[in-house]
Amino acid sequence: MPLSRREFGAALGSAALLAAAPATAAAAPITDRAGSGAEADPYAELFQAQYDRIKDPANGYFSPDGIPYHCVETLIVEAPDHGHQTTSEAFSYWMWLEAAYGRITGDWGPFNEAWAVTEKYIIPTATDQPTNDSYKPSAPASYIPEWPEVSKYPSPIDPAVAVGADPIATELSSAYGTTNVYGMHWLLDVDNIYGYGNTPGTGGENGPGPGPSYINSYQRGAQESVWETVPQPTTDLMAYGGTNGYLDLFVKDASYAKQWKYTNAPDADARAVQAAYWANKWATAQGNQAQISASVAKAAKMGDYLRYATFDKYFKKIGDCTSPTGCAAGTGRQAQHYLLSWYYAWGGAEPGGGWAWRIGDSAAHAGYQNPLAAWALANDPALTPKSPTAKQDWATSLKRQLEFYRWLQSAEGAIAGGCTNSWEGQYGAPPAGTPTFYGMAYDWQPVYHDPPSNNWFGFQVWSMERVAEYYYVTGDADAEAVLKKWVAWAAANTSVGDGTYAFPATLNWSGAPDTWDPAAPGGNAGLHVSVKDTSQDVGVGAALAKTLTYYAAKAGDADIAALAKNLLDAMAAKSDAKGIAVPETRADYERFGDEVYVPAGWSGTMPNGDEIKPGVTFAALRSWYEDDADWPKVQAYLDGGAAPEFTYHRFWAQAGIAIAFAVYAELFPAPA
What domains can you pick out in the chain, each with its CATH number? Predict the structure, then answer.
């Protein structure tokens, strides 16, 4: 079964400061300025300017088919390994960007277009997932253990380990009249740089083959960084790779069948719901809700299927799972941890094969939680899913997520990693004394270890901005308590002044939380965080500014509002022709020469003829990088020169700073 994971590194740079005065909280009017498409507000003007740069075809944010690229620049390696791939993350930020545009301008056509392109290209169609009618909820998947090291793969199927039953498949099929899954696959090769192009149903305007292609990469445990991946097509027709396509790099079996498989990134689908919530709220206030009702209904449907991310990977009982055979199979809600885990996935045989499977995930990371999306799916009639149990599932998830934050909050205020119901991905026994959350083991670096998954400050702000939005909407006291402590810590570690700005980049962790007792939460006096270095990354800064803005508006905190404003002004000073960006030095690009593990005796080829064999390097599997205009900078570094510097325009970051301007314009509008 596939295991996808995504990692993000902090970008380093410098920036200048524009001094700003504190603002006061107020409700923003929804008005248009004739002819400009922007409110008469300086931050709405900044939004519009940034929006126009993103939508300018000359700047290269979108493919000819209208798909948002991960990055304008092509030579970039982080979670995707090429800038003109894209992610469900980018699509969800696009939806959010267009929601903000609709609030300011009253034009909801672009929001609907974002959903239309999403359905066309990154939500697999019925053709892309052809054999779901063979899925058996009573036997959702075969157990395959994960391993901490890449060299332990391929991993054998173990039929002796019992799996639980899927309790939501039947009601989903009944609610929507289909056995297909409605969720975004996380990774798309937009320009078909790998050359797979054989996924049925993709291919843009040119038909299957030369256009966008679904791909996957991470499948080999927690230690597999992007530098150790072998990307493969999601539909493996065994046309490329080895004798069995790519399947026997990951799974050991007696025989192999042509098949399809997709992996969902739950934080992106939840962000799509989040964007739809705001779009519906703003459009309703304008009297325009009918214009977007169909798109909002799609978000509700996506939220229905997103519940797969709230179940254990193999639907085993939650809590005290310390051996594969000793951990009992679950029925009903016994296997539901109610958190947003790292992924859910589904797949099946090509037509004629007669089987299909679905899995959740046992590991939950604090950075993926989204209480606003859970609240909206449980409380907003426009976003109520059709399935009869979905509303209650999301109400329970909301409560559980808020408890999760409280459990993981360090003595200083930052939020620690997460937990797992399956230690090391094989229901192993965690070290003695490991704290637990509803019986699931604490993991300071859940899901991936290279680099440690919770060392990036970006996960703090991505998650806390959702908590801040939820707090702004509801005034929930539990959210306020977590935010108050977190904001104090973040503000104390953020500086804006003397021509610079900086906030945390890399975090270090020590200790552990207290075992969770909902009746008597511990104080986590032994759980600590420290800041290793700082960053000026625009996307991270935008999420920090949004968090501070929402918190300040609800709490009436003028000092935090001023910090948000000053930070936005400082980042705005980094504008260029394509967006707002800062230079970053990529010392990690020495890893272009890293070896990608291939088992002894295995051989095959990539579509362009690159050999897949033991000893092959990351760069050798991607020889097309040598044709990139920026490759000489990397080659010079590999030859002993200085680490190369790049100024990247990532879609999520550029959309994020635009949205941050719009949020500030809404919550702290300029006097009329």
Answer: 42-121+129-160+181-341+348-583+647-667 (1.50.10.10)
Told to judge if 89 belongs to the known catalytic residues of this protein, a careful annotator would answer: yes
- Give yes or no: 267 in active site: yes
Sheet arrangement for strand 500-510: 495-497, 500-510, 528-535
- Nearest CA to 412 out of 508, 537, 553 is that of 508
Phi/psi of residue 413, each to 5°? 130, -25
pLDDT averaged per 10 residues, the chain (length 672): 28 25 32 43 98 98 96 98 98 98 98 98 96 98 97 98 98 98 97 78 44 93 97 95 98 97 98 98 98 98 99 98 97 98 98 96 98 99 98 98 98 98 98 98 97 97 98 98 98 93 98 97 97 98 98 98 98 97 98 98 97 98 98 98 98 98 97 83
Contacts of 142 (CB under 8 A, 6+ apart): 1, 157, 158, 159, 163, 357
User: Which residue's structure tokens are 């501070």?
Assistant: 548
C-alpha 394/C-alpha 307 separation (Å) is: 8
Q: Specify whether the CB–CB gap between 61 and 84 falls below 8 A.
A: no
Summarize the chain as % helix, strand, coil (round to 5): 40, 15, 45
Cα first-last separation, the chain: 57
* CA dist 598 → 6, 157, 210, 441, 621 (Å): 21, 19, 28, 32, 11
Amino acid identity of residue 548, one-letter, is: L
Strand pairing category for 251-252 and 155-156: parallel
Per DSSP, the residues of 67-113 read PBPSBSSS---SSSSSTTEEEHHHHHHHHHHHHHHHHHH---HHHHH
What is the predicted pLDDT for the residue at 455?
A: 97
- Of the candidates 461, 467, 516, the residue with the CA atom closest to the CA atom of residue 490: 461
Q: Which of 372, 393, 166, 418 is nearest to 273 (CA)?
A: 372
Name the H helices within 427-535. 457-474, 477-492
pTM of the model: 0.94
Residue of 73, 81, 89, 610 marked active site = 89
- Angle at which helix 42-55 crosses helix 651-667, to 10 degrees, equals 160
Q: How many CB atoms lie within 10 A of CB 83?
A: 26
Given the residues 128, 146, 189, 267, select the one marked as catalytic: 267
Ramachandran quadrant class, 226 (left: phi over 0; alpha: psi -120 to 50; beta: rest): alpha
CA distance 638 to 592: 8
**Biggest CA pair distance of the chain:** 73
